[in-house]
Amino acid sequence: MVSYAQGIDALNQSLSELRDINVSFEFFPPKSEKMEQTLWKSVERLAPLKPSYMSVTYGANSGERDRTHDVVKRIHQQTGVDAVPHLTCVDATPDELRQIAQDYWNSGIRRIVALRGDLPPGTEKTDMYAADLVSLLKDVADFDISVAAYPEKHPEAPNAQFDLLNLKRKAEAGASEAITQFFFDTSMFLRFRDRAAAAGIDLDIVPGILPVTNYQTLVKFAGFTNVHVPAYLHRLFEGLDDDDQATRNLIGANIAMDMVKVLAKEGVKHFHFYTLNRSELSYAICHMLGVRG
Ligand SMILES: Cc1cc2nc3c(=O)[nH]c(=O)nc-3n(C[C@H](O)[C@H](O)[C@H](O)COP(=O)(O)OP(=O)(O)OC[C@H]3O[C@@H](n4cnc5c(N)ncnc54)[C@H](O)[C@@H]3O)c2cc1C
């Protein structure tokens, strides 16, 4: 019988043998001067790790689109790393989307994260889903396209199989990679990856890793994204709300490191980090995975 100690030793040993791990980092456009400084400090800290790309989220309305584009452009100019805009389709016409895509292509952007986006409050249906956006983008130019995947099912999907077939439609429309919603249960991610393979979904399924630095914010966010927060997480962060950030960071890093160790051992070669514009935890986890500057 393998003891826990032997199991942990084996996991750490296999980690030291890892090669060829790719990472990518996600940021959001800053909304204040202070947030702007935090973002660029983080971009500079993480760029030397030579990520596959850095992506920038996009919120509805055209002002936000411009800010996404500005951050994308500056990341690329300042660091040389491939910068990838997220694009949603709920708030734009197909003609507008074609124009945005053409502008992106003309300015040298070759990958896009294609999403439907969240429906505005009170809206129940939309004319366009992410799969339609993937087709539209592929009609404009030969972009590399990433899409979203939901190991725990998208909140609006009637069931998991329906959602999996939606992912298949996105692959068939021309996506090459799916980034998952964040999660904490690694076996659930692995089962999802198996189900996708069994359904013939030909996509790299990249786990989205959220290093938790604020438990209360996590709980709020997990509530509306249908992500299960295991009871042990609550127990680990209990009593630390008013403690210093460094203590919470250590707990958050420990949780994420345990997850990536298991996933790396299960053959995952690409990890996508939801950085929330901070670098400390993502940097430490990458270092542990052997991703060095
Ligand atoms: C990695 C990642 C990055 C993200 N970045 C952003 C961002 O930058 N900006 C932002 O606003 N949001 C972002 N989101 C959130 C995302 O926009 C929401 O989760 C949104 O509600 C769904 O987007 P989707 O691309 O997954 O949609 P879709 O794949 O279109 O699916 C949406 C829902 O509709 C269902 N569906 C699909 N096709 C049909 C159909 N024909 N008929 C009926 N139902 C259908 C699906 O099963 C699913 O329940 C991101 C999510 C992830 C995982």
UniProtKB/TrEMBL annotation:
Gene Ontology cellular component list: cytosol
Name of a matching Pfam family: MTHFR
Sorted UniProt keywords: Amino-acid biosynthesis, FAD, Flavoprotein, Methionine biosynthesis, NAD, Oxidoreductase
Molecular function terms from GO: FAD binding; methylenetetrahydrofolate reductase (NADH) activity
The keyword Ribonucleoprotein appears for this protein: no
Record field: catalytic activity: (6S)-5-methyl-5,6,7,8-tetrahydrofolate + NAD(+) = (6R)-5,10-methylene-5,6,7,8-tetrahydrofolate + NADH + H(+)
Enzyme Commission (EC) number: 1.5.1.54
Pathway: One-carbon metabolism; tetrahydrofolate interconversion; Amino-acid biosynthesis; L-methionine biosynthesis via de novo pathway
Biological process, per Gene Ontology: methionine biosynthetic process; tetrahydrofolate interconversion
Top EC category: oxidoreductase
InterPro entries recorded: FAD-linked_oxidoreductase-like, Mehydrof_redctse-like, MTHF_reductase_bac
Essential cofactor(s): FAD
Family per similarity comment: Belongs to the methylenetetrahydrofolate reductase family.
Protein name, UniProt field: Methylenetetrahydrofolate reductase
Species classification: Bacteria, Pseudomonadati, Pseudomonadota, Gammaproteobacteria, Alteromonadales
